[in-house]
Predict the 3D structure of the following.
Amino acid sequence: MQFEMPSLIPVLPELFLLTMACVILVVDLFLKEEQRVLTYALTQVSLVLAICIVYLTTGTQAEVVFHGSVIRDAMGDVLKVAIYLISIGAFLYAKDYLQDRDLFKGEFYVIALFAVLGMTVMVSANSFLTVYLGLELLALSLYALVAFDRNSKGGSEAAMKYFVLGALASGMLLYGISMIYGATGSIEFQSVAKAVSASGMDDMVLVFGLAFVVIGLAFKFGAVPLHMWVPDVYHGAPTAVTLFIGSTPKIAAFALAMRLLVDGLEPLHADWQGMLVILAVLSMALGNVVAIAQTNIKRMLAYSTISHVGFILLGILAGTDKGYTAAMFYSIVYALMALGGFGIVMLLSRRGFEAENLDDYKGLHDRSPWFAAMMMLLMFSMAGVPPTVGFFAKLFVLEAVVSIDMTWLALVGVFFSIIGVYYYLRIVKLMYFDKPVDETPLTASIDTQIALSVNGLMMLLLGFFPASILSICAAAIAAS
Amino acid sequence: MFADWPILSLTIWLPIIGGVMVLASGDKAANATRWTALAISILTFIVSLPLYGGFDAGTAEMQFVERVSWISLFNVEYYLGIDGISMPLIILTTFITVFVIIAAWEVIQYKPASYLAAFLIMEGVMVGVFASLDAVLFYVFWEAMLIPMFLIIGVWGGPNRVYATIKFFLYTFFGSVFMLVALIYMYFQSGTFDILAFHDLKLGLTEQILIFIAFLLAFAVKVPMWPVHTWLPDAHVEAPTGGSVILAAIMLKIGGYGFLRFSLPISPDASHQLDWLIISMSLIAVVYIGFVALVQQDMKKLIAYSSIAHMGFVTLGFFIVFTIFANPEADTGAMLGVEGGMVQMVSHGFISAALFLCVGVLYDRVHSRQISDYGGVVNTMPLFAGFMVFFAMANAGLPGTSGFVGEFMVILASFRADFWYAFLAATTLIIGAAYTLWMVKRVIFGAVENDNVAALQDINSREIVILGSLALAVLVLGLWPGPLVEVMDASIANLLQHVAVSKL
């Protein structure tokens, strides 16, 4: 047997991040409490360097390395950069929050970096096994993060639920993968795809395997009917962690869907399309309707996530390049919106006070007109009202659905988004039309303020120039 | 000389950027802010004038065209241009906004900078709606319009403002999302979002009917037509004066404009098939809503219902064309109907704005809109009474005012379509006169009813300027509608030619 040392260049970003996570773990041991900020700085620097490495090592051709386990392509590169960038934002917003609550520990950053690593492994997976590895690395890190505040009962409960349900879903996914392996004799995406198109769609084992894979996928996305964990985890976790769970993993979930369903099981498109239609319709319906009944903003945003997942699925199920582009655009934009939304929630919270109830947003316009305006932009963007970028995300997805003659699905989508508008408007109403109950001035460090402002204004700016990100996504999808 | 300038972009972006500046300047130097806002609105009006001056009335082609690619992947363009249908409405927008800014001068003390900024931004967005020739661009402006209005009603509105503004937003949003799906559908049929390309797109009857219904949902809510009008009285009553003025004078016209730009040319056969529906809805609006207006106790509500009735005339004028086409003797009747509808839109823009401003004048002094709280205002405010009576007469369609021209043209045209249409439409001359003049009688004339009225001060020079200018506009348009009709002649003739040809 010939043993060949594969080139490490394509996986350099992941290797670097892994090394840095270990380095930070060790360095943090030697830091005193007041030097902890160094851990934070190192984390951010690692992420920035990881972006540079992706940029420097990017190639024009897709490369498959490690005997077909890992792929380095344009879509992966774009998604990785998005994940790194949004993680930087999430850590930035989280800093003040963690410091105020004595949660500013080195472990947070180490675990979070492992989560980021897990996501990027998923993004660059080319076989079922690699996907599963990345997924579990992400999931285990997230379980720990949810329970990061040891004194919080809610946090522990949420982590427990998340862990049990997540393990179940991983089991389903693995079961599905094993069936597909049984039917095709391979775990590498290209050869699975080849075997599937050869055997045709009638293979019962294959379709069963697909169903289980979709179940696992739906759980990771938080799509109805496998959404039960989402509100509880969003609610129970410390807001800094909710922010992290709510933003980047959606991009990773998109990558997961692309790798599993498109790279691996594209020949079964007709089968999984129907499954995704059901998931998408249910998610949009339940997410939007139940969000209305929430009085806690974290739960409300959790249900809003569910409805957005429905829209992302619409783009994927179209099964066209434009549909994938639209879904990719949507998931990146959604991660940005969630980042900003939870960022504002953290801005309003302070030591001993969590701005979790909708009533805490009353009169924000009087307390801080600027951040009220940012939150308004974010809310209108989530609602999909032009000229914010959220509208374009919806527009592109709807176009994808109409293009495959599923206009009825587009009608369902817009119908539920009308219902959705109501609860986003309610936040704007509370901020602008009501008098403040709580007059405490907002305190936030200047870097958080700048980042939040950029985040909010991006909703408008990307709305004026949606082509900027869209063309990147289109190029990435076309190349892979 | 102006042909090469991006005048449309200027008219759109000058007030929007100006509005952002006004917003940023804050409320510290409120007076300077007011002057800045006024300067921006006047400048925008001046910038928009070359659209009239440089307009070539002899052609139905789009003029002042600006076309740049915007989202190339989906073939979306930043595509602006105007014809004789949109140009008068753009000038109406820039004209009315100036008075809205002046009307807010002393009245708005709570966050004046944000208030003025909202109106300036809305001005730009509304001009954008009229000027867009790309469907996505149109939709972006169309929806973006909701955000400032939502805030205006919600922040500066009356006691029940939250209910009114959320109802307003959801109602209009509900209407328009289905239009979005229709637009996307047509994109896949034609490969472009160019509205003019949609006009020439061949569509089957079922497709046309579905598209027509989607458009109807959007435009009927906006106009508003009976039975989807219920948001309007609520929004009007709760909105601050400026909000009511913009709502009545311009936003409603956007619905009417939509019928001309989208429904009729894109789905002519469906419009033909379903014209009975629109005509009945219009006639119900004219007659039934007229009676509803009669029993109102609140002045703003009364004018709101009167707006619905008047907009019924507009849609009636637009949709009787098919009945007229079927009647070979009536050669120019169709022209008359659509032009009448257009004149009615512009004229109603002036009159409803003026009436809402009149109510605003009273409300600022007495803080009540109930008719019963007034009586004998003429004794303490003779000058104001003169203006109010004049505008009321115009609203009732007195010959010599602009209100007469549009109504007369539409009634004339409906005679060529069907006697009973004309008969029902003409009842407005009686009902309209009844509710308007009865209100004027109870508010303005009679003996001084109470201390509030006795203490009233007549209008100041600022208010005279506003009401005087609008009165002049109403009078000029009423006596000499020629210039307005001439600019739209070619475009409407072209539209009708297009509509007369079946797409099947």
In short: The interface with chain A takes residues 70-74, 114, 136, 139-141, 143-144, 146-147, 150-151, 154-155, 161-162, 165-166, 169-170, 173-174, 177-178, 180-181, 184-185, 187-188 of chain B (CB under 8 Å).
